[in-house]
Amino acid sequence: MDAASPLGIEVTVASEQPNTLSRLNPAGLITLDFADPEKSARRVVEFATEYPIDAVIPVDGQVVVVGASISAALGLRHNSVESAAAAQDKHCMRQRFKTAGVPSPRFTLCSLDEDRAALAARVSYPCVVKPLALAASQGVIRADDPPQFIRAVDRLEAILTREHSTPPDSDGCNDYGEKSHSKVPPPPAARQLLVEQVVNGPEVALEGMLTRGELRVLALFDKPDPMDGPFFEETIYVTPSRVAAAMQEQIAQCAGQAARALGLTDGPIHAELRLTTDGPSVIEVNARSIGGLCSRMLQFGTGMPLEELIIRHAIEGDFDIPQRQSQATGVMMIPTASAGRLTAIHGLAEAKAVSGIEEITVSAHLGQQLTPLPEGSRYLGFIFAQADTPESVESALRESHAQLEFVIEPKAERTRENSSA
After folding, report:
1. Which of 56, 91, 347, 388 has the least C-beta neighbours within 10 A?
2. Rounded Cα distance, 155 and 158, in Å
3. Long-range contacts made by residues 386-390, C-beta under 8 angstroms, separation at least 24?
């Protein structure tokens, strides 16, 4: 919304929950059923007879299929509905990568209804257990032997059961601490899991833009913290990447090949890759831009934010994408260290005073019940840094984070007397 306003672009916000102001602003607010993309598309086609639409921009992973369906119905440039759906289903994504020869982990689709001991006996170790459709590494667990595998599958089943049987949290936040009311996919995905081989090597993230199938790399991020498990919480992103130029070229080619394998042709993508001794291996490709507030570290041309670039690209068919500003930048997604109620935050002033720190945004609020990975899926906030070199950015982020103390009161166990009462 902030990016659209200076451009003079009128925006209609579509959400799942009715807005109390919709009657006062009928052109600016519309309620859709994200679980039914075809129904949503019909609703928007009707809406567009009175309020014409020039572009549709999905702003998170839960609505890429809805966005593609609406664009198709309106005859706008878009990713196909099939490709958008493939990018949202980790198993379908793996199948397409395998068919197209995209380097990616070996995988097996399994059911939670299978005998756990028999399943543990037929998979290879080390492996990663993951759900088909959750985000932000929720439910993703490494297992190095059969006992760990059985525990991981039991834990994932509990996570999926909770996600599919309870309403959104009271604050309605998504995986990155932003407001959202999106629902996770219903069964049968809720009774399935993916088992993948562990891919060794550092991980990088690629932010890109597709135009008629051609990929333009917007930024390549190093993830300097090792992501070896047992859980896979993301923390620091730094750009420009310190990876050798030849490897960066291989990464771009691999990401482009993966996007083509999914059938994606237009709009932003966010890809995760591991750098193995044999070259890049694609972990996943999302048909969306980078999540949460992380886009704040990206500026293009004379200061264009990523969101403005995405809007211009969606509206202007031949938009000339400017280069990213060369200054080294980075973000740290503040991890949730333990479960419980957030009661205090100390050291914020000291953390902000660290040289190179541009901004600290705490998205968690006092009194909030926190859940770490793998059951949880959100961060406490974001630390942003800018400096002359990637090394200085990383150092500033680590020093700033060290100044912060989040006081988390463990959830009290109910006593037998309380239970009886």
Report:
1. 388
2. 5
3. 386/297, 386/327, 386/328, 386/329, 386/330, 386/356, 386/358, 387/327, 387/328, 387/355, 387/356, 388/327, 388/328, 389/328, 390/222, 390/238, 390/239, 390/240, 390/241, 390/242, 390/328, 390/330
State the virtual CA torsion across 194, 195, 200, 201 in degrees, nearest 10. 0
374 within 8 A of 330, measured Cβ to Cβ = no
CB of 50 closer than 8 Å to CB of 35: no
- Domain spans of the chain? 5-78, 106-197, 199-326, 330-421
The fold of 106-197 is: Dna Ligase; domain 1 (3.30.1490)
**Encoded tokens for 374:** 């793998």
Cα(309)–Cα(320) distance, integer angstroms = 10
CB-based contact 329:305 (threshold 8 Å): no
**Spatial distance between the Cα atoms of 280 and 284, rounded to a whole number of angstroms:** 12
330-421 has CATH 3.30.2350.10 classification: no
pLDDT along the chain (421 residues), means of 10: 92 91 89 95 97 94 94 94 95 98 97 95 96 88 98 95 64 42 52 95 97 96 95 95 98 98 97 97 96 91 94 90 94 95 97 98 95 91 97 98 97 50 40
Residue 264's pLDDT is 97
Reduce the DSSP state of residue 269 to 3 states and report it: strand
Architecture of domain 199-326: 2-Layer Sandwich (3.30)
Same topology between domain 199-326 and domain 330-421:
yes
Tokens of 67: 């966005």
Query: What's the one-letter identity of residue 400?
Result: S
